[in-house]
Amino acid sequence: MVIVRSPASATVVNAISMGKGSAFGIKLYVTADVTVLNYDSDKDIECRFKSLDDPNMDSELVELCIRMVYDELNKYDNFNLKNICLKVETKSDIPPGSGLSSSSAASNSVVYATFLLLLEESGMTREDVDISEWDLLNIGIDASLDVGVTKTGSFDDATASFYGGWKVTNNYNREILHDYLVDYSKVLIYIPNKSLYTAQSDVKAMQTLAPLVEIAFSYAMKKNIEKALTLNGFLFCVALNVDSQVSMDALKAGAKAAGLSGTGSAYSILVDDSTDIDEIKSALSKYPGKLVETEPDNVGSVVLDNL
Fold first, then answer.
1. Over the stretch 246-275, which tens digit does the pLDDT of each residue have?
2. What is the pLDDT of residue 307?
3. In the chain, which residues fall in CATH 3.30.230.10?
4. pTM of the predicted structure, to 2 decimals
5. Are 235 and 213 in contact, with CB atoms under 8 Å apart?
6. In the chain, ranges of CATH 3.30.70.890 domains
7. Could you report the per-residue pLDDT of 111-122, keeping only the tens digit for each?
8. What is the DSSP track for the chain?
9. Residue 67: its pLDDT value, please?
10. Which of 2, 81, 192, 219 yields a CA-CA distance of 20 to 30 A from 246?
11. Which CATH number fits domain 2-179: 3.40.50.720, 3.10.110.10, 3.30.230.10, 1.10.10.10?
12. Pairing, β 267-271 against β 186-191
């Protein structure tokens, strides 16, 4: 059994407009528990997947992640596992369709846990294969693109989830341009009572705003998370016809930055030690949904158990 936990991420700049983006890890998590069920499969590898939060969750992304990890390991002569059936269970703090990178966190945790388990089952170690954490990250991104849960590969979200911290990226080139830490101890996440899925978003509307999103991106490149996050959030509220009043109310109540995360539905709000966080909570209490108080995650994906 291998258990891996990967954090969600909040958007600083959405990459859909121009292929460059920025995100930072937050302490909401997807945890993947992967074990060997049996060696009776009529395939090289298959899985029995269960989401402990949503029994009806589609299994396509998880199944593809596992298949791609297996195929990568199967390139090595001393890897000889066949007919293996895995049991995969995930548990998530992240509502799907919230814009908090639940898919990236899921793919990161499943890929990492499956890789470690298959190595162990085959009697191999990480020293026996030329597969890096960067390679594992890219397996999850490729799987997400193939399944269609992302428009750009979500490289900004995936790197923030895998490595933690605040990443500024070129998604199309899969390049980390800057790697920062978030200088805030608290993050508020407002999650409305609805989901908005990236695959269903109006890409043309978002790409129309590219010249303005470029300004937000330039702030991120200069390590100005407050201006980048807030400007990006307002721009994407316009593009997606989503209410921006949540952000405005949070800013009026003392938040240092506030904006839509991803394509929604969640909003991320940065709070420093001088801010009266209860005042912000009070200002947003009129909105249906829930308000989650959390922190930046600067650690990324972590192995919780490897038995």
1. 999 999 999 999 999 999 899 999 999 889
2. 66
3. 2-179
4. 0.94
5. yes
6. 182-294
7. 999 999 999 999
8. -EEEEEEEEEEEE-TTTTSEEEEEEEEEEEEEEEEEEES--SSSEEEEEEESS-TT---HHHHHHHHHHHHHHTTSTT----SEEEEEEEEESS-TTSSS-HHHHHHHHHHHHHHHHHHHHTT--GGGS---HHHHHHHHHHHHHHHTS-SS--HHHHHHHHH-SEEEEETTTTEEEEEE----SEEEEEE-SS---GGGS-HHHHHHTHHHHHHHHHHHHTT-HHHHHHHHHHHHHHHHT---HHHHHHHHTT-SEEEE-TTSS-EEEEE-TTS-HHHHHHHHTTSSSEEEEE-B-SS--EEEEE-
9. 97
10. 219
11. 3.30.230.10
12. antiparallel
The single residue listed with the structure tokens 């109310």 is 249
129-149 in b/e burial notation, b at 16+ Cβ within 10 A?
A: bebeeeebbbbbbbbbeebeb
To the question of domain 182-294 being in CATH 3.40.640.10, the answer is: no
